[in-house]
Fold this protein.
Amino acid sequence: MRRAVRLARVAGLLLVPAVVAGCGFLFPFSDEEFAPPSPLATYRTGTATLTLEDGSRIVLDRINAGPHVWSSFGTEVRWFGTDAADGWNFKINGAGMDTPFPSALATFDRVAGGQHWTTLFSDACDLDVEKADKTGIRGTASCEGLRWVDALDGYSMGLNTPSPVEGQPRFDVTVTFEASP
């Protein structure tokens, strides 16, 4: 019994430095590998033109406040219209990331009838980002079969699926977008 108590104490003493030192002791990564992203650029102007499948066009002539380009995770730009009554927004995340795979994602949002609708990050969009860096972002998106869902319906990092907005059919849209400092 005494031997077991001594072994437990020795084991405890050996674990104390690891616990005090934290994960860095057990998993030695450099601070640079896990540094928080830093802002690289802010765009001042931008336009996104949405062309719906019926041929109607929606011009989003404003962008959200910056910064818009970040180290580690690329761009985060949202376009919206001067006439906020139409409620449309278009957002690109992750363009310009230094990854071996396509990283940009498109999202559409709309406020209609007191509800917030979204398409979430859709894989239904074929994005062609010509440029995404400190000097600006420019490209096109062609999206087919998008579906509006209730943005406030408890979506949690892909663990559940929000309810589709009742009475809203799937839709197609093409977008040309640009923004610059």
User: Anything to note?
Assistant: The chain is about 15% helix and 40% strand. Residues 1-23 have pLDDT under 50 and may be disordered. Residues 84 and 121 are 22 Å apart (CA to CA). The first helix runs from residue 2 to 21.
